[in-house]
Specification:
Elements (H helix, E strand, L loop, with lengths): L1 H14 L2 H9 L8 H8 L2 H16 L4 H15 L2 H16 L11 H24 L1 H11 L16 H15 L4 H17 L22 H7 L17 H6 L24 H18 L2 H10 L13 H15 L1
Helix pairs in contact: 6-9, 7-8, 7-9, 7-10, 8-13, 13-14
InterPro entries: Fatty_acid_hydroxylase, Sterol_desaturase/TMEM195
Organism: Arenibacter antarcticus
Protein name: Sterol desaturase family protein
Amino acid sequence: MDILKTFIEELIGFLGVGNAWELLQSGDFSVFTTYDGVVSLIYPIIPLLLILEFILGLVYKKPNTKVYKVNFLIYVCNRFIGRFIALAMVTLIIGWLQPFALFQTKMTWYWFIYGYIVWEFGHFLYHYWGHKVRLFWCLHSTHHAPEQMNLSVTHAHFFLEAPYADAIRTTVCILMGVEPVLLFLIMFIDGTYGAFIHVGENMMKDGKMGFLNKIILTPSHHRVHHARNPLYMDTNFCNLLNIWDKVFGTYQEEQDDLVIEYGITRKMNSGNFFDVYFGEFIALFHDIRKAPGIINKCKYLFMPPGWSHTGEHQTAKLVRGSYLQQQLTKE
């Protein structure tokens, strides 16, 4: 019975319906007009969409079971480790850095817009470095390993990535004056939308969302980000507001005539939990072991993925640049 009770509690936790159920039991429905009430209603949306997406996959006979299986194992692994470290990291950073903030915002609509732009800048930095620094890529590659896109991919992260990401995003926001209550509101909205943009083609065939594709970052943009096609590599690092991708030249729209190939460029078994979770660390260890001299060994930690001490580099920047040059030559 204890095992069954634990399973039910974990299922309720995954679905995010616990808070809403408690509020319903109170009989005071006016509480759903408060912040906590609204959050309790929004939080279950993504888990329920994930289940619906999986069911539709079975109906369409495109279940992507390998992706769901590995991502479920990653979710279980991270459930008991990563989230507690990330929460502690955010709390510590707020306490340490808030006294050094340039100024202090308030809970108003215009400061909310400011805060979201600042948050997106912090997210861009974390995400960009996650692709451009080999050690950080080892943390982030787990998220890019799935070879199909669906909502379960949002749970595919190495357990130390959340603390690393939140440390950067929280530091930027706190130093730029985003007060904690406003920061947590932005984190909730961004986390919910950040999960949604992983929606797969079983549920949303065209992820461009009409005219919104020109205004915000859509599932189409994020599918591009998860692609290993040379044109798409290392693009669309933002989460909701793609302003910083456009500022720094990493913006790329999906091309209708180019089929997206998901996954990473390293040969791997995307259905193997250990290869997905630890494979990049193992590959980095082998490169460091073979590299001559301490300088080259250190470079493997901090240079972009694909960098080689032999000079035979295969970084995303070089691969994409070569592809674009070939396209210009054809024209």
